[in-house]
Every structure is written in structure tokens, then in C-alpha cells.
Amino acid sequence: MKINDFPNHIQPYLIPEVTGNVVYRCLGCGAQFDIERLLYTCPQCGSVFLLVDLAFDRLKKIPSDLWHRIFDYRRMLNLPSLKGIYRYHEFIGPVIPLDAVIYLGEGHTSMVEANPYLQDLVGARFFFKNDGQNPSASFKDRGMASALSYINFLVRSEKLSDVLAICASTGDTSASAALYAAYLQPKVKSAVLLPHKKVTPQQLAQPLGSGARVFEIPGVFDDCMKVVEALSEDYDVALLNSKNAWRIWGQESYSYEIAQDFDYDMSHKAMVLPIGNAGNITAVISGFLKFFEVGIINHLPKIIGVQSSHANPVYRYYFEPVPEKRIFEPVQVRPSVAQAAMIGNPVSMPRVIQLVETYNKKAGCQAIFFAEVEEQAIMDWDLTANRNGHFACTQGGESLAGLVEAKKRGIVGKDDIVVLDSTAHAMKFADFQQMYFEDRFPAEFEITPKKSLQNAPELIKPKGLDLLPSAERPLKGKDFDRFVQQTAKAIAEELKLRS
Asked: Nearest 5 degrees, angle CA 193-CA 196-CA 202?
């Protein structure tokens, strides 16, 4: 739809201009720094940043109903730069010109309501938001579109050149970083660090296919992260992990999309998200806070962060009910099917602590909760969801298991509508499904398959057939007809079909 086809009163708002006064703000000492260079931690105290628009109050001058119309009308535009996360440009990247925006198809992923059977089984009305539908098949593309759009802007402004983008990953971050960096070749190249033999073959194939330099190192994700941090401190590289505050900004789009999909009515809503490096839950909290401050939404939804008992540092921190007694301690992770969330020392923990406190104060009550689930529950609920028409990844299974736990604890009420985050595509974690079907999980996973959830192909070779078709020797005539009839009969008997 063309600009001139829209109502006159909305036309001036549809194409956002470069506005705002954005700075890095340290969560430790409060110092502020110019964004004209890439910074990841505070030079004064070493803490992480949030990006802050010092001119944010200008957005409050636009009435909430007008904001609703702006975003809803933008949905009909055919401009690539506004098709993805930058539909919400004023809230995500107001200083980035639209011609610097990188759009590879990310954002606006489907929100699919569970079928009646599954909702009755769980005891709640809920949706899966399928972020595996992003271009590299995970939610990481939201943050990467933001981080690489800003890098693209700096390169075009000649403030950066010969960029090497680097990240540590459990799989999804590396796939996303390599994809977006490849789009900016030859000005941007990428390298990724992965824990040796702790990434699925499907995830490993993605950065290799995008042309990244891939380095595997011993240990787990937290070890890779320490190496990447050392590289970013001592060498001129662009760090693309969630320590990069631009990543957080892009991932806020998740909140904005959900608000828009519910026509901005967030009363009696709840979000359930798996926690890995804590960047995503940080972004979701921040996004809803911004929309609430401007008046685009009138209620702050409940947010429930979920962790496996095999990687649960955030849950353990908030398990202590007295805030003054809470002490954050990293944990040594154990093998988890929610592999992307298998992180024992999340770099965004300082952001979580600050934003959770702010969110609960703005909500006027406790609105953010944390739940712990077992590996068995993650796999069982993941397979149950997918047997009911979904394609949830194991992190999506963790979200569903978290919803079940939240129901038990009374966090989710009968009137709540819940959105579960399935962070990646199920095919990335198909190996875990196969391990479940074949009952070959190593003992450390603590998973025993339920026969009712196992599945396997069945070879049909009807008895009495001497001749069977093959690629080299196809059957013809009566032999082929006999094969078809006998095979159909054998399958019908297995399925107990009536003629």
C-alpha cells in the first residue's frame, strides 16, 4: 500500500525520522557514554549497559490511540525496512536511518493457539509464539538485525571499517550472527566460538554454511564466553553476544508484536520464556515497560522465566524471598535438552535484577516470577505439544513445562491468557527427539522415555510377496499390482481400517 492511500492524518507518522538522543548507560555506576563507538562494558566499573534514549519522553506526546493506528497502518506498508522489527523504530533504533536497516525477514512470527485438547490437558488457554520462523530459525535474529543494522550505519558513516563480528554460542547465536554478517560482506566478516561437541549438527551447519570461521573449544558456553570477552577487550572486534546492548534493543520487538497481536490489551496476559544468557527476558521486560510508560498498553503482563534444574542460576537467585539476602552465584551446568539455555553465568543478570525491580514497582505487585523444571518434563511436554500440531523446540518445551509449574503454584490464574516462547525451530533439536524415541539418552540427562510418546517408522513387507520393487529394478504389470494390493492390505490391518 502506498503512502498516499493512507488517511491524511496518519501519513506524517508512517515513515519514521531519525530522532532521539541515545547513550550507553552503565547499570553499575550509572555513567553514560556516547554510542559513536561500540562499547560492551563500562570502562569505569566493568558492568554491562542498557541503551537509553534521553529524549524518550517525546514519545509520550503522541496519544496511545494514535500509536495504535501508526503501528497498525505500518503493517500495510511495503517498505522492507519497516516490515521487520523496525515497525517499532521509535522504540528500538530511532537513531538508525532506514537506509541502514538490515532486513532478512525477521520478526512478526506467528502466534498459534494450542488446540482444545492440549489446553484442557494443561488447564490454561495458551499460544506458542514461534520464533523459529525467523530467517536463521531462532529468536536471535531480532537482536542481530538491530546490532548489524547499527554496525552497518557506523560503516556507512565511516566510523567503522573492516569489521570482524565475533560471538560465543550454544548454536543459535552463531547461526544468526554468521547469517547477518554474511549479508554485509565484504565489509563485515564473522567468527564464532562453540563448545566442542555441545552443539547439534544442524546448528553447527548454519555458521559453516554462511562462511563464518568456526572455532570449537573445550568446555561449555560459559568458557567460550570468557574467551570472546577477552578478545573484545584486547582486540578490535564487534562482540555480538547479548552483552551487546543493541542486541537487547532488537529483541524488545517480541513484546511489541505480542501487544499488537492482542490489540494492545495486555490485561490478564502472561508470558513464559526460557532463560539462557538472560538477554531475552531482559528485552521482553524492557519492551513491555516502554509501551506501558508511553500508554500504548495499560497493563503490564505477568512474565515467568523458566530454567531447567540443570542450569538454574537465575531461579536460585530469586528462590531467596528476601531481596536483601539474595546473592547471585554462577552454577556449573549439567547436560540439558534445552541446550540453548544451558548457561550457568548469564551476562545479562545485572540487567535482570534492575529491570525486575522496576517492573514489579510499575505493576504495583509482583508481576515477574521464576520457575524451575526437570529435564524429563521439558522433553515430555515438548513432544506432547508437537503431537498436537506445534513445532516447538526443546526451549519451547521448557516454556510449556514452566506453564504447568506456574499453574501448580497459582501464578497463572483461570482468566489468564498465556504466550509461550518457542525460541527456535524444532528441527534444530531433532536429535534429542530421536534420542527419546530410541531410548538412548545418557544417564546424566535424567530422562526416561514414556512409551506413549515414543515413535518409530514401521517397515511393511507383506508376507508371500517374492518380488519387491527397488530403484534399480522397478516392478511392472501384474507383479506391481500384486505388490500394491498386498501392501495396502497390510497397512489397513495395522491401522484396523474397515472396508
From this structure: 80
In the numeric block, the cell 533439536 is attached to 429
Report the b/e string of 370-403 with b at 16+ CB within 10 A. Answer: bbbbebbbbbbbbbbbbeeebbbbbbbbbbbbbb
Instruction: For residues 177 and 223, give the distance between their C-alpha atoms in angstroms, rounded to a whole number.
Output: 19
The answer to whether residues 370 and 304 touch, using CB atoms and an 8 Å cutoff, is yes
* Opening angle at CA 52, ends 61 and 62, nearest 5: 10
φ, ψ at 303 (rounded to 5°): -130, 125
Question: What's residue 184's pLDDT?
Answer: 96
Q: Do domains 111-135+252-453 and 139-246 have the same CATH topology?
A: yes
Q: CA 84, CA 79: separation in Å to the nearest integer?
A: 10
- φ, ψ dihedrals at 228, nearest 5°: -65, -40
For range 263-273, the mean pLDDT: 98
Cα 382 to chain centroid distance, Å, stands at: 16
- How confident is the model at residue 437, as a pLDDT? 97
Give yes or no for residue 251 having a pLDDT over 90.
yes
Question: Starting at the edge strand that comes first in sequence, how are the strands of the sheet with 163-168 ordered?
Answer: 213-217, 188-195, 163-168, 238-239
Q: Are 190 and 231 in contact (CB under 8 A)?
A: no
Strand, helix or coil for residue 398:
helix
User: Which residues are CB-contacts of 180 (< 8 A; sequence separation ≥ 6)?
Assistant: 102, 104, 141, 144, 145, 147, 148
Give the span between the Cα atoms of 145 and 158, in whole angstroms: 20
Q: Residue 379 to residues 164, 238, 384, 437: CA-CA distances in angstroms?
A: 37, 36, 8, 11
Architecture of domain 111-135+252-453: 3-Layer(aba) Sandwich (3.40)
Query: Residues 5-27: what's their mean pLDDT?
Result: 95
This model's pTM is above 0.85: yes
Could you please report the per-residue DSSP string of 170-207?
SSHHHHHHHHHHHHTTTTEEEEEEEETT-S-HHHHHHH
Sheet-wide strand order for 368-373: 111-113, 125-130, 417-422, 269-274, 302-308, 368-373
pLDDT 10s digits, 414-469: 999 999 999 999 999 999 999 999 999 999 999 999 999 999 999 999 888 889 99
Which pLDDT score, from 0 to 100, does residue 198 have?
84
Q: Dihedral (C-alpha) 281, 282, 288, 291: value to the nearest 10 degrees?
A: -150
DSSP label of 20? -
Q: pLDDT value at position 339?
A: 87
Q: Is 292 left (phi over 0), alpha (psi -120 to 50) or beta?
A: alpha
CATH code of the domain occupying 139-246: 3.40.50.1100
Domain boundaries, the chain: 111-135+252-453, 139-246, 462-499
Burial of 54 (0-12, 13-18, 19+ CB in 10 A): exposed
C-beta of residue 212 within 8 angstroms of C-beta of residue 195: no
